[in-house]
Amino acid sequence: MFKKLVTCNNAIEAEFLKGALEDMDIPCIIQGEVTSLMYGGIGALPVVLLVDDKDMQRAKSFLSERDSAQEEAGALQEDAGD
User: Fold this and answer.
1) pTM of the model
2) What is the mean pLDDT of residues 57-70?
3) For the chain, how big is the Rg over CA atoms in Å?
């Protein structure tokens, strides 16, 4: 059964995450993409990324690692600006 993994700000972000997860052999479904794109993909409507229960832990781990890497990159960028 597919369940909500994360709510994305727009369809582009959801597609990016879907591609990364599918590269890890984690099937995904994007819910709300068409409606979001009808409004120009401006983030006015949320887009939900769904994954199967059996893949949920791996998908959450991927998101956690991605968030950590983004925070680290942001910190390095701040340090470089000092």
Assistant:
1) 0.74
2) 91
3) 15
